[in-house]
């Protein structure tokens, strides 16, 4: 082979790159040698033989002092959906690209149809919804059912990237919704729709169009069985905001979490409720997780959890029943099974609550997921209440993490949790010692050092605490059960 032909063949040899860590290798392998991820090596075309020197060229706009930049063009515009605006930090920023991911059937299309309708009804600019998973008639049926029709709301069913960009050119929308990015393909690439190459190319083209037109864009993304966004990891780096839409099929509650947000907080949570006529925001979702009884019921306790920075009240229920089986049953719903097993062991050993020959069932109300350690004390009190068949005060909340020694450990944002509990009518609270500096109004706070002190306070028993000082039946102040 002539030297020139050999050099040309060397230059045109394809290169392969890992979509997770960016490692470039000479040939395809099933597992990345750098990050050890499987199936992430993708062909990226011929690799350059040598770096070429690049000189200065023309600029699109001259650099200016940062104080002279006009920020009015990047001001967020409210979507009209208050809970989504809470998560976004005020609304949609013109030119921003959002990625909304969630399980199939959770309600992503319904939520975005609501957002597009509210945006179109605002009158500033039309909204365009491009669907690649449904026909236009199917989306129209959903719009009829939820009463989300507006003359400025445009709809197109396309799976070709060039056709999508053609619709954008014709409509000139202020908001573009693409449902979903995995169904759109570029005719310039030979790979199938949804592949890593296609998703990366389609996303890059839509981002370029959004930035050039100052058009807010929302991309719907699929998720894997692990709950992660499907496609290359670089997809989350390219977009400005990454939102996760969560919910259980058997519950009407839906949560929108901000995983990445360049324009606002990344720890906010928006709450929604699915109903027959679509989806609506829940400004006060705690009522879904509480059961109001006419009289006190044994085996129930309420705690205050944090979803992001938002305090939510959740009720924990427990049932303790005798068993004749050699191994008692432990059933959990809405709680972390490993953490509940630890709390049961601490309750039996440190709280002197006999559970050895008892079946224990624990659950939450309304489909709430209690994974935060701040709910440990509520679980322990609910189990003890069920075992003793004694009801806790109905206006009591319990906040605290349990250690293996039975001590009640501090958790964050206790004052914010207590303020939310007081707002909903709770008048008593058990918290870890030293966790608050100022007691919120309209609620009586009792600080406890350990589980025995907490049990002695709620049941008014003469229980001897781990530190050797007891709580009296009348509830008088003690070193392990101080009231504030």
Automatic annotation (TrEMBL):
The keyword Zinc belongs to this UniProt entry's keyword annotation: yes
Matching Pfam families: AAA_25 (PF13481), ChlI (PF13541), Zn_ribbon_LapB (PF18073)
One MF annotation (Gene Ontology) recorded for this entry: damaged DNA binding
Keyword Transmembrane: no
Positions with biased composition (Polar residues): 468-477
Family matches, as SMART domains: AAA (SM00382)
PROSITE patterns reported for this sequence: RECA_2
InterPro entries hit by this protein: AAA+_ATPase, DNA_repair_RadA, P-loop_NTPase, RecA_ATP-bd, Ribosomal_Su5_D2-typ_SF, Ribsml_uS5_D2-typ_fold_subgr, Rubredoxin_2
Region spans: Disordered: 465-484
Domain RecA family profile positions: 73-223
Top-level taxon in the UniProt lineage: Bacteria
Motif (RadA KNRFG motif): 260-264
GO cellular component, one term: cytosol
Purpose: DNA-dependent ATPase involved in processing of recombination intermediates, plays a role in repairing DNA breaks. Stimulates the branch migration of RecA-mediated strand transfer reactions, allowing the 3' invading strand to extend heteroduplex DNA faster. Binds ssDNA in the presence of ADP but not other nucleotides, has ATPase activity that is stimulated by ssDNA and various branched DNA structures, but inhibited by SSB. Does not have RecA's homology-searching function.
Domain text: The middle region has homology to RecA with ATPase motifs including the RadA KNRFG motif, while the C-terminus is homologous to Lon protease.
Family assignment from sequence similarity: Belongs to the RecA family. RadA subfamily.
Name the UniProt record assigns to this protein: DNA repair protein RadA
Protein species of origin: Cryptosporangium aurantiacum
Lineage per the UniProt record: Bacteria, Bacillati, Actinomycetota, Actinomycetes, Cryptosporangiales
């Amino acid at each position: 082979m002539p030297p020139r032909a050999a050099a040309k063949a060397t230059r045109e040899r394809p290169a392969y790159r890992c979509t997770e860590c960016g490692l470039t290798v000479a040939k395809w392998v099933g597992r990345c040698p750098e990050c050890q991820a499987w199936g992430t090596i993708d062909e990226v075309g011929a690799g350059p033989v040598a770096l070429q020197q690049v000189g200065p060229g023309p600029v699109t706009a001259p650099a200016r002092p940062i104080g002279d930049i006009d920020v009015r063009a990047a001001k967020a515009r409210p979507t009209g959906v208050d809970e989504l605006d809470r998560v976004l930090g005020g609304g949609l920023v013109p030119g921003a690209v959002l990625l909304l991911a969630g399980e199939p059937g959770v309600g992503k299309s319904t939520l975005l149809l609501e957002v597009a309708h509210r945006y179109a009804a605002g009158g500033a600019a039309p909204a365009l919804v491009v669907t690649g998973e449904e026909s236009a008639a199917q989306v129209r049926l959903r719009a009829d059912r939820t009463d989300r029709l507006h003359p400025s709301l445009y709809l197109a069913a396309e799976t070709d990237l060039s056709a999508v960009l053609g619709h954008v050119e014709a409509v000139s929308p202020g908001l573009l919704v693409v449902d979903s990015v995995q169904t759109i393909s570029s005719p310039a690439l030979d790979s199938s729709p949804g592949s890593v190459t296609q998703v990366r190319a389609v996303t890059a083209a839509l981002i370029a169009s959004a930035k050039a037109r100052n058009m807010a864009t929302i991309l719907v993304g699929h998720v894997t069985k692990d709950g992660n966004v499907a496609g290359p990891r670089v997809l989350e780096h390219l977009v400005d905001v990454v939102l996760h839409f969560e919910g259980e099929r058997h519950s009407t509650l839906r949560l929108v979490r901000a995983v990445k947000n360049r324009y606002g907080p990344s720890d906010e949570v928006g709450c929604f409720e699915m109903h027959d006529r679509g989806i609506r925001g829940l400004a006060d979702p705690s009522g879904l997780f509480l059961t109001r009884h006419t009289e006190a019921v044994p085996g129930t306790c309420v705690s205050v959890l944090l979803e992001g920075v938002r305090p939510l009240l959740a009720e924990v229920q427990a049932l303790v029943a005798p068993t004749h089986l050699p191994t008692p049953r432990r059933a959990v719903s809405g709680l972390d099974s490993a953490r509940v097993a630890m709390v049961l062991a601490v309750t039996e050993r440190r709280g002197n609550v006999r559970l050895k020959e008892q079946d224990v069932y624990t659950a939450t109300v309304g489909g709430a997921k209690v994974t935060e350690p701040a709910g440990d004390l509520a679980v322990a009190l609910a189990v003890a209440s069920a075992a003793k068949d004694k009801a806790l005060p109905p206006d009591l909340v319990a906040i605290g993490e349990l250690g293996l020694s039975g001590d009640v450990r501090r958790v964050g944002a206790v004052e914010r949790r207590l303020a939310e509990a007081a707002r909903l009518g709770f008048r008593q609270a058990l918290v870890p010692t030293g966790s608050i500096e100022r007691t919120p109004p309209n609620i009586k706070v009792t600080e406890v050092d350990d589980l025995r002190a907490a049990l002695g306070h709620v049941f008014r028993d003469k229980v001897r605490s781990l530190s050797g000082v007891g709580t009296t039946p009348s509830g008088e102040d003690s070193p392990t059960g101080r009231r504030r």
